[in-house]
């Protein structure tokens, strides 16, 4: 059951209607309910005494495709030299980050030792060792995923 204060409910209702941004949008039945203390609530289920149905008309939301989806003519533009400079900086930053992540992966794989890392002194409990090994596997997978993402971004440049 949805129970909200009136002001928040109105804003939420408008936001929900605007959210469905393709064609016509119909809302479910919405009721404004007032309890014995005079508190107003908006509900879409569990309607009780003191509730009245709100008449919510369908809203037509324009689709943002074609010319309407393009930037306005007065939208600030960047000249080609500035954009090329930004692209070069972006490539350099991504390449630097790729080197850092590859070095991190190499260190993680070295300490992982093909799935048999050395036990540490505080790992008398075998479960602690297994937990650390699992954490290492997760770190390696996450770092490899980061490397793949950076390479993907570099390929787009």
What do these coordinates show?
The chain is α+β, with helices and mostly antiparallel strands and 157 residues long. The chain has two domains: 6-61, no CATH class; 80-156. The chain is 50% helix and 12% strand. It contains three helices and five strands, in the order H-E-E-E-E-E-H-H. It has helices at residues 6-19, 80-112, 126-156; strands at 23-25, 30-34, 40-43, 51-54, 59-61. A three-stranded antiparallel sheet has the order 3-2-4, with no helix packed on it. It has a two-stranded antiparallel sheet with strand order 1-5. Helix 2 (80-112) runs antiparallel to helix 3. It is flat, with a radius of gyration of 29 Å. The relative contact order is 0.09. Residues 21-26 have low confidence and may be disordered.
